[in-house]
Predict the 3D structure of the following.
Amino acid sequence: MAVPRKKVSPMKRGSRRAHDAISAPTYVEDKESGERRRPHHIDLKSGKYRGRQILEPKADA
């Protein structure tokens, strides 16, 4: 049976896992509506993306 020659040290293991942490999603403030939205996503309130009308604006009820 195969047996590892040397156990992986905690430092090596930690270095490998350094990029595995989950980060909170980033938000930017929309220039036109002032609403917070994800970068590179359509502003759902106004329906615009990069100055162009993509979707119908959401009706305030």
